[in-house]
Amino acid sequence: MVPGSWTVARLTDLSQRLSSGHSRLDAVLGGGLWSDALTLITGAPGTGKTLLAQQFVFANATPDAPALYVSTVSEPLEKILRYGRTLTFFDPDAVGRSVFYEDLGGLLDERGLPAFVERLDAAIDERKPSMIVIDSFKALHAFAREPSDFRWFLHDFAGRLAASGASSFWVGEYVDEDIAREPEFAVADAILKLSSERFAERELRVFQVLKLRGSGFMSGQHAYRLSNSGLDIFPRLADPSDPTSYDLDERRVSSGIPALDAMLNDGYWPGSSTLVAGPSGVGKSVMALSFVFAGAAAGEPGLIANLQENPTQLERTARGFGWSLEAPNVHLLYRSSVDLYIDQWVHEMLDVIESRGVKRVVIDSLGDLAFASPDEVRFREYVYSLVQRCARRGVSVLMTMEVPDLFHLARLSESGISNMSDNVVLLQFLRGQSRITRALTVLKTRATLHEPEIREYRITSDGIVLGDLFADDQAF
Description:
Layout: H1 5-12, E1 17-18, H2 23-28, E2 33-34, E3 38-43, H3 49-60, E4 67-71, H4 77-84, E5 99-103, H5 105-127, E6 131-135, H6 147-164, E7 167-172, H7 176-181, H8 184-187, E8 190-199, E9 202-212, E10 222-227, E11 230-234, H9 258-263, E12 273-278, H10 284-297, E13 302-306, H11 311-319, E14 330-334, H12 342-356, E15 360-364, H13 366-372, H14 376-392, E16 396-402, H15 417-420, E17 423-431, E18 436-445, E19 454-460, E20 463-469
Parallel strand pairs: 3-7, 3-8, 4-5, 4-6, 6-7, 12-16, 12-17, 13-14, 13-15, 15-16
Antiparallel strand pairs: 1-2, 8-9, 9-10, 10-11, 17-18, 18-19, 19-20
Helix pairs in contact: 5-6
């Protein structure tokens, strides 16, 4: 190989990318992987390394530009094919036509690395592949007598693959310590890490780009799930501030409660975020449903993102007030907080907002969302990014949050969510001499006047009905 020829080839092929077949993963990779890159796919057993490699293979291999998939001693070819046939993207007709499998594990055992390289050279000459996968590459270390021997092998081997012009994927069960120690990480153009992180009693699969030469990419950890459709990734939602301007609608958005609209100076601004806070049983969900169904009646599609009541329970609650989840312009996204990937949930919600033209969103509740979040910082990032994206689309968001104090509330949130909200409505119980009453206060509104009154309210078959002001001298 002519010295420097690989660098020249890279500079001439930068316009071509390899798609993973999954748009969100391609977005994380800045548009995909370079077509002649050397990519390391790392991770512990069971994290989906082989699945991801095959996903790239079947998304790109053609009879004119085939893929060569080489198994070594850690993953038998028969096993790769047996599980591969269960995948929706696996095309049996492509095997032997555009995807070629080679099992070189036995050859390695008998004759070592030189024979492995010789057979691989012959397969490359025969197949002229545009993609080469070696699974597992880390297993090749065991066939070098000394670490220095493996370094010489790696130098020669990487040069051979580069000269072929094919993109290479080296799959291996590497751990974090290997990144600084093993020489293949220095020659790799891209390093993709798959891992499984534990948070309390939860386990979260995490994808991370550690290295991607010549390209931008989405940094940080991104949640993913594995299924027979392959690796489904949910990019981390952490939007930076965006100073660019966007159009603001001057029409007000009704809360669904006429008396509350009056306290808000004729309702909320469109695209604003509202936090409804209060203890359990005070009526937060009823206020949220009022908001959605009022919009639906006015022709504004609404989305109820519910993490508490299942659809049957929620339908029963809605019918008690004369509503139905089957009503036009009402959409439901129900997920259990017990097994919730918050990244997945956010992207599903954004997809519904876009595909259904949603203008009003209810999140019931933030407490369940925080419970599913790995940590408080990520929780704040999710909420901030979601609220900002909705604001720029003119989508009004109402979020419920349970507070710990049943009477005499001393604080709203320790996560700073009230600071991100344009409006804050407080619902609380007040204890009198012989009965408990409910009270509503508008604590905060941005860019508008509001009445900071404490109003009694009742929950009736017509929803929330506001009553009189409490007297100034009434003891709470």
